[in-house]
Specification:
With 224 residues, the chain is an alpha+beta fold. Helices cover 45% and strands 18% of the residues. It contains 7 helices and 7 strands; from the N terminus they run H-E-E-E-E-E-H-E-E-H-H-H-H-H. A hairpin with a 4-residue loop joins strand 4 and strand 5 (64-70).
Length: 224
Amino acid sequence: MEGRVGIFKSIFTRLGYSRFAFPKAMGFTGGITLGWKADLMQIFIINYHFQYIHSQITMEDGKIWYLTTVYVSPLDDRKKELQMDLTSIATSMDSAHVKVLHHLEFSDHHLVLLTLMDKDLSQVPKEFKFECAWLVEPSFEYLLNSSWNTHQSLLSNLESFKTTVMQWKLHNIGSIRKEKLQLMHHLEGIQKVIQDGRDHEGLRKLEKQIQTYLSKTLFQEELL
């Protein structure tokens, strides 16, 4: 949160926050205010900077996690400085990682992907269930009709459908994540070229086409 220390300290106090962290701002730009309730958590500030606060948070139940709040300066030199610091922070984290993704056509902000490395959750077996993303695929209706036998019982049809749809999903829906990564890679490359100043109408048109297709792909993935 940007702002003057005194103003936000007053605001945080009225909101019931008992602890504050105020890195020194650079003139009238930058500066982040971090406030928290000491009866709910303990926060240890690992590093102050006018562009970020890197902290370790301990909850009431003893769980520990890390929070890095960031303000990005519009100045290129300070952006590079921030990038170097955040890279250093990222390499020190072994329980999760963050990646800055492309931006979509409806926003000039970049998406941020946070991936938690929880081995226990990854080992939980998945139950078979109907997925709404199947309905978006034009071939699903044909699959359903062709795999359903009106002369068989409901349970037999469901078992048959389960086997058939899992194979279909592997080759159709299963490729959504692969297509998403490919589209994101292409879009990231195009936007890097544009940011480097090599901009032209054809490149903008291609960027919009990929953004449109990526939006559809992300919608399908969200339904999974």
